[in-house]
Protein: Alpha-1,4 glucan phosphorylase
Amino acid sequence: KTKAASAQAKTVAAPRRRASDDPVESIKASILDHLTHTFARDTAGATPRDWFLATAMSARDHLTSRLIKTQSAHNDQNVRRLYYLSLEYLMGRLLISSLQNAGVYDHTRQALEELGVDWEALRASEDDMGLGNGGLGRLAACFIDSLATLDLPAIGYGINYEFGLFRQAFENGHQVENPDSWMIYGTPWELMHPEYQQEVQIYGEVENVFDDSGNYRPQWVNTHKLVGVPNDIPVPGYGTETVNILRLWTSHATEPLDLNAFNEGGYVEAVRNKATSETISKVLYPNDKTENGKELRLVQQYFFVACSLKDIIRRHMRVEGNGWHNFADKVAVQLNDTHPAIAVAELLRILIDEESLDWDEAWAIITKTFAYTNHTLLPEALEKWGVPLYARVLPRHLQLIYEINRRHLETVAAKWPGDNEMLSTCSIVEEGGGKQLRMAHLAVVGSHAVNGVAALHTELLKKDLFPYFDTLFPGKFRNKTNGITPRRWLLDCNPALSALITKTLGRPDWPRNLDLLQALGKEADQPAFQQEFMAIKRVNKVALAETIQELCGIEVSPDALFDVQIKRLHEYKRQHLNLLHIVALYRRLLQNPDLDMVPRVFVFAAKAAPGYDLAKNIIRAINVIGARINHDERIQGKLKVAFLPNYRVTLAEKIIPAADLSEQISTAGKEASGTGNMKLALNGALTIGTLDGANVEIGEEVGDDNIFIFGMTVEEVEAVRNAGYRPYDFYYADEELRAVIDWIGSDYFTPGERHAFAPLHHSLLDGGDPYMVLADFRSYSDAHLAVDAAYRDSPRWAKMAIMNTARVGKFSSDRTIREYAEDIWNLPPVPVK
Ligand code: AZC
Structure:
């Protein structure tokens, strides 16, 4: 008989909570109290989800008092604050990180155990908060964790999407998408604050009217009104009292029901306006690099920016009265990519149209307030908006952007007199083929600092993307290499390794000071430590093997090398290069079944944008070819391919601690930074990668001996492209490569279904192989031979793995945020007592 069953016999309704000196007892009481009084359940009938909710509420109780304390400390001292504007926050589950950061994780685990509650079932019933696509959204989530941990006064602003990134399933190898109704039954973490709702306007037109003082001025009229209601998520720091907030806006109509329309036209008419308004925060757009031209996307951007700016101004004026003179002293706004770049024009509109500041005054405030982060060089990701669309949705902003541009081009003309080409290159408005607004140019012009996300990326940003802007605004461009929070990405997701680290270092504070891991380097040669380290890796691999069995029905051996590529599916990330190598290995094994190779399990997880056909074709190819390989007894289980469905934060937390090898194989110059590379290295996976993004800096930290670098450099890619890249040259020169490509192009893997992988096949050859997969294939294959040799030498591999964990302290997002705070935001910490 379980403890829960016996508890249930006694406990029908918990008494109201009593204070207890014993922390475990008081948490137990708190959980039971919420179970009974918040959710009206008794212990007998409670489902795992009820237990999750009660535990989450109990965790929240620890956070809310700290949240109130933090906010009043910030308000009382009227501190300078950072406002992070991001259309995406890829948070994942919040239970463990909330408990850890509240400092009650162990006690809560014990309390639940004593209550006889199944912890795994409990935590599995929390849906991921998947309000982001990939790296950009996950970075925002790591950043708000670090901001709170470093006691920095900060508020994150975004949209409370009712549907996050789609849920992915596979049917016959094809990706199918289902809606992610993560909050359909509510979420315990959000606190709704109707008292801080904001009304904003959109659409309409601009009229010129005489104002009270007889001046002729433009006025934005006949607008459509919207209401944004904030939902706050507490963001606790680790090992500190600070609890910041993430404020996510939900869109509402000003009038929920139009009774006149109801009387005349019926129900549908009566709620039409409500439905349209609520559509704005309905769903996250599922592309991670493109979202151009869609009206609803523009409306989303403006809606959350306008609500957030009003909220920021409200907070400032509450203390300062009419305090524009020191607004920029108290307010720093970071634009996460160009998605919130309309903020530049919106603040200008407020200052000029509503507050009657003159242009120069207004512009000075703006450029002191904003800073902008660029996350990619891919041209298709650079946001552009058609002028006609803008004229319809944001007519007044369009006028203001034109005026910003006119003044900006004066500066350009002064710098390069008579150079018309320079004017059109630098312009915010792109002419020809339908006028478009270049949001990146607006963001650069309107900000005092612009940063890239890894050293190489920032160099390319200055050189290729904004060459003239770097000359025009010397010193504006700087680098802030990305980081990851070591709380979620080591402490929470890899408890066994964390315990070993704490024991070895003799101190538990490394999650706040990741450079302490350096000291593990001293143990890297010690056989006993190597064994402990690798034993933990093996346990994590056994757990992942079970997940693979469960999700894919594939049996894999934990003794094989786990070779992992987990990230969005995109051509530039080159999952197809990985696939070509797998097929080459398969072919080698068929030619020589006794081939002496380390058995490998290739683990993939990736979502493709629903409209990205080639990416979906690559998913299908990996699934279908993988299935064939998995079932081929001739190769004696030496190769397995597992494509885990529905990649998300929670799945990453399972895969990363179990990885031996981390695939970071983008075409050089294309991956701005990468952050999965950091998470995997921190958990003792070795990187096989190109000299791209943050791989370069990871290599510098771990040393050449502890990483497998292959492929062309940025300069070589450029040289080959300039010389006229011809994939067929590589195809004909390399017999194995040719055979592999032909094989994929045949119907061998899809009997009866010809041309199944024609899109992939075409892109590699006649399509011109835009990401130079063929050019890097041989070097990649050779690097894998080096991996194989290293893995056979277990002590050597163990040492390399330990060195990775020991030497990647630089990639803590605490370091990144400290750099932003000092160099861009000028933001001092505010400890909360
Ligand atoms: C990503 C980059 O592709 C990735 O390299 C980087 O690590 C991450 O941002 C965080 O900086 N970019 C995006 O997800 N999206 C866009 C629009 O760039």
Notes: The first strand starts at residue 81 and ends at 85. The pocket of AZC is lined by residues 134-136, 139, 288-289, 337, 375-376, 381, 453, 482, 671-675, 693 (CB under 6 Å). The chain has three domains: 1-77+94-126, 78-93+128-482+818-825, 557-806.
